[in-house]
Design a protein that fits this description.
492 residues; two-stranded antiparallel ribbon; 2 strands; globular
Length: 492
C-alpha cells in the first residue's frame, strides 16, 4: 500500500502517539517496550525522509485538521526550515532511545515506562511544531511539549527534582501566557491571519513601533529559547536523567524555542521588516549578552551537566542572534546551527551520562586521567567540543562561519567580536576536560579509577553515531546548506 504524502505528514504526529499505547501495554516486558520505541522511531524517521524527498522534488503537502474560526485553524505543511527540525528530531529520537536503553538499565532507573511514554509524546509535539502551517497550530503543540516534558524533568521524584520541575514549568508557562499568547493574539488582530508566509504577514505600512513591541513580546514569550533573563529553567532542569537532558538540550525543547524564533522572524515579520524595527538592535545585543554571560557562568561550573547547560544557553543565543540579524547569511547560519549544535551537544550530554554510569562521577575536577579507561567516550567528548567551538573537522564550523558572515553583512561589528570571544570561551570551558582526561594523572583520592570501563554498548553506540554526525556535517554539509538556503530563496 502506497501512502499519500498527506497521510505521511499526519503519521509523523500520530506514530509516536500510537507508540505510547504499545509502550504502556508492554510495561511489564522491558525488551518488548523498548523494541516498540525503537520500531516507532525507525518508522518515523523513514516517513520524514520520504517527506524530505518530496520537498526536494518540489511537491507541496498541506493538511487541514480543524477550523477554530475564520483564518484560525489547526493545519500543517512542509517547508525547508520545518524539515530541518523534523529530520534532526526524528533521527535523534532513535539514537537517544538506543542511549537510554543502556543508561536507564545500568542506572536502574524507576518508572521507565513513563519515561519512554512521555518521550514519545514530546516527539509527537515536536513534529507538530516542525510542520505547523500557522502560528496558532505551533502554539498548541509548543504548550503540549512543555507539559509532556515536565514528568521527564521530575523523573527522579526527589524534592530537588520537584523543585527543578516547578521552576521549569513556572517559567515556560508564565512566559507563554504573559508574552507569547499576547503577541499571537495581537498579531492576529492586526493582520487578520497567523499563516506562515514567505516575506511575512505584516503590511508595508504597519506601525513600526507596534511591530517592534510585538517582536519583543515574541522573543521574551518563547521561553524555550532561554534568552536571559528567562533562562533559569534550563539549569534547573538538569536534575533530570541524562537522556532527558539530551532531549531538552539537543532534540526537543530548546530547539523548539529557537526554531520558533527563527520561523517567526522569517515567516511572520519577514527579514525586510526586521531590519527597520526599533527594537531589533536591542534584542540583538540582548542575545549577544546571553552568549557571553552564559559562557562566563559555564566556566565556573564544576558539575559537568551544569557547565553544558550554560553552554546551551550561550549557543541558543547564536541562533537568536542570527535570526535577528535579518540577513541571508544570518538565517542560513542559524538554521544550520540548529542541526550542528544538536549533534555536538547531544554527544556531550551522552558522554556526561556515560561517565556517570560507568565512573559514577559528575564533577569535572574528578575526571583527570579518565581518558585512559574511557577512551571512546572522552574522544567523542573532544570531537563534539570542537563542533561546539566551531572548528574543523566538525559541522559547527559551517554554521558559525555563516553567522560570522551575517554580522558582516549587517555591519554589526560588536556582535562579530562577541562571536569570536564566545568561541574562545568555548575553548576555555570545554577543551580542558578531555585534555586532563588524557594527559593528567588521577588525583590520589581517585585511585579507584583503575576499575572503570566504558559505558554499556547501547550507550556507546549512540555516542559513536552522534560523534560521526559531527564529522559528517563538516565533510558533507550540502543537504543541510541547501535546506537552509531554500528558507530565504524565494524572499520577496
Amino acid at each position: 500500500m502506497i501512502l499519500s504524502l498527506e497521510v505521511m505528514l499526519q503519521l509523523t504526529i500520530t506514530i509516536p502517539l500510537l507508540a505510547i499505547l504499545g509502550i504502556i501495554t508492554a510495561r511489564k516486558s522491558p525488551n518488548i517496550r523498548e523494541a516498540i520505541t525503537i520500531t516507532a522511531s525507525i518508522i518515523l524517521l523513514y516517513i520524514v525522509v520520504k517527506l524530505y524527498q518530496s520537498l526536494l522534488s518540489g511537491k507541496t503537502v498541506d493538511v487541514f485538521w480543524w477550523e477554530i474560526m475564520p483564518n484560525l485553524s489547526i493545519s500543517f505543511s512542509i517547508e525547508p526550515l520545518g524539515m530541518i527540525f523534523a529530520l534532526i528530531a526524528s533521527f535523534l529520537w532513535l539514537i537517544t532511545t538506543l542511549y537510554a536503553i543502556g543508561y536507564m538499565r545500568s542506572h536502574q532507573e524507576e518508572n521507565q515506562t513513563r519515561f519512554y511514554s512521555c518521550f514519545a509524546l514530546a516527539i509527537s509535539a515536536v513534529m507538530g511544531i516542525a510542520f505547523a502551517d500557522n502560528l496558532f497550530t505551533l502554539f498548541v503543540f509548543y504548550e503540549v511539549l512543555t507539559l509532556s516534558t515536565y514528568p521527564l524533568v521530575t523523573h527522579a521524584g526527589t524534592e530537588k527534582a520537584k523543585q527543578g520541575g516547578r521552576v521549569y514549568l513556572g517559567i515556560l508557562l508564565s512566559t507563554s501566557i504573559a508574552f507569547f499568547l499576547l503577541a499571537i493574539a495581537s498579531t492576529w488582530f492586526i493582520t487578520g491571519t497567523l499563516d506562515f508566509k514567505q516575506g511575512g504577514i505584516f503590511s508595508t505600512n504597519v506601525d513600526k513601533t507596534i511591530a517592534g513591541a510585538l517582536l519583543v513580546l515574541f522573543i521574551f514569550g518563547i521561553g524555550k529559547a532561554a534568552i536571559m533573563p528567562f533562562h533559569r529553567w534550563l539549569p534547573a532542569a538538569m536534575v533530570a536523567p541524562t537522556p532527558v537532558s539530551a532531549l531538552l538540550h539537543a532534540v526537543a525543547v530548546v530547539k523548539a524555542g529557537v526554531f520558533t524564533i527563527l520561523k517567526i522572524c522569517v515567516y511572520i515579520f519577514g527579514i525586510d521588516l526586521l531590519v527597520v524595527l526599533p527594537t531589533t538592535q536591542f534584542l540583538l545585543y540582548l542575545a549577544g549578552a546571553s552568549v557571553l554571560l552564559a559562557s562566563l557562568v559555564a566556566m565556573r561550573q564544576d558539575n559537568l551537566k551544569a557547565r553544558l547547560a550554560y553552554s546551551t544557553i550561550s549557543q541558543l543565543g547564536y541562533i537568536t542572534m542570527g535570526a535577528l540579524l535579518a540577513t541571508s547569511a544570518g538565517v542560513i547560519g542559524s538554521s544550520m546551527h540548529i542541526a550542528t549544535h544538536a549533534f555536538g551537544k547531544i554527544t556531550l550530554f551522552f558522554c556526561a551520562g556515560a561517565i556517570l554510569v560507568a565512573a559514577h562521577k559528575s564533577k569535572i575536577s574528578e575526571m583527570r586521567g579518565l581518558g585512559h579507561h574511557m577512551p571512546v567516550t572522552m574522544m567523542a567528548f573532544f570531537i563534539a567540543s570542537l563542533s561546539i567551538i566551531g572548528v574543523p573537522p566538525t559541522g559547527g564550523t559551517w554554521s558559525k562561519w555563516f553567522l560570522l558572515i551575517g554580522t558582516m553583512e549587517a555591519e554589526q561589528w560588536a556582535l562579530m567580536v562577541v562571536l569570536m570571544l564566545s568561541s574562545l570561551l568555548n575553548i576555555a570551558y570545554l577543551l580542558p576536560i578531555p585534555f586532563h582526561a588524557f594527559f593528567s594523572k588521577a588525583l590520589p583520592k581517585d585511585k579507584d579509577i583503575t576499575a572503570i570501563n566504558e559505558a554499556p554498548w547501547p550507550s556507546l553506540l549512540a555516542i559513536s553515531i552522534t560523534t560521526l554526525g559531527c564529522l559528517i556535517l563538516f565533510i558533507y554539509p550540502q543537504p543541510l546548506f541547501d535546506l537552509a538556503t531554500a528558507i530565504i530563496a524565494s524572499r520577496n
